[in-house]
Amino acid sequence: MPGSVQSIERAAAVLRLLAAAPNGLGVADLGNALGLAKPTVHGILKTLHQVGFVEQDHTGAHYRLSDAFGRLGESYLDPNELRSRAINWADSLASRSGEVVRVGRLVEGKVVVVHHVFRPDDSDQDLDVGTTLPPHACALGKAVLAFDASGAARPGRLDSYTTRTIVDPARLAEELMAVRAKGWAGEFEEHTVELAGIAAPIRGLGGLVVGAVGLTGRIERICDSRLRHRSDLVTMVRATAEAIGRDLREER
Fold it and tell me: Which part of the chain is the HTH iclR-type domain (predicted)?
């Protein structure tokens, strides 16, 4: 059996010490308590700060547990940050694909649209930011549901929106398994008749899926003559998701 991971053990020890010190501790305090060199402790604290588990006081000399550490069951990423990192990439995807592009995240079992780019033509369109979508019936939702390890976000009841909506839990589980294997999700008239969609998960720090980006359009534009999702659009969507995730990982 493999042994324990030393860096994780040390990080856990730092968190335990900070939990017992409401006024915070300095690098030297932590180093002395754990028998570690200051550079080692500083590296641990820097990483814990980046992931939002610890924060510094106004002097920058002491560290303490952040409020986010007590809310581990919640999403660590603010929706405004996800939107701000996604804007340029989503706009570019809409321009290149010619289709509607949305960025969404799961909130209480629904997909909330945090950014929406209109199809770049002169048609009349409504802004979808803030609206919710059923995760089992859209590519955007399936791209996130597939990577929900706990299964807590999966809807208990699978409502039908068209004759193609997946309403059987076993079939949905198979679909999500396929999404994990491919790395992207597809939709074919599952939420709205005559529309199809493609989406890919956005991964933040540590590979955690924090949302998804996807495009939606008429079947004849999203699919080929054999009703398969166009490979060029799949490549665009996956590249956009990776670019947004890279920005999130580099900036935090």
Answer: 5-67
d(CA 70, CA 185): 33
Q: What is the 3-state secondary structure (H, E, C) of the chain?
A: CCCCCHHHHHHHHHHHHHHCCCCCECHHHHHHHHCCCHHHHHHHHHHHHHCCCEEECCCCCCEEECHHHHHCCCCCCCHHHHHHHHHHHHHHHHHHHCCEEEEEEEECCEEEEEEEECCCCCCCCCCCCCCEECHHHCHHHHHHHCCCCCCCCCCCCCCCCCCCCCCCHHHHHHHHHHHHHHCCEEEECCCCCCEEEEEEEEECHHHCEEEEEEEEEEHHHHECCCCCECHHHHHHHHHHHHHHHHHHHHHC
What's the pLDDT at 73? 58
Closest residue by Cα to residue 79 from 35, 38, 40, 132: 132
Residue 80: count other Cβ atoms within 10 Å of its Cβ.
9
Supply the pLDDT for residue 96: 97
Separation CA 79–CA 202 (nearest Å): 13
* pLDDT bucket at 251, cuts 50 / 70 / 90: low
| 5: its two tokens | 């991971």
Dihedrals phi, psi of 25, to nearest 5 degrees: -135, 150
Q: How far is CA 210 from CA 33, 83, 144, 146, in A?
A: 35, 11, 8, 12
Q: How far is CA 184 from the centre of its chain?
A: 13
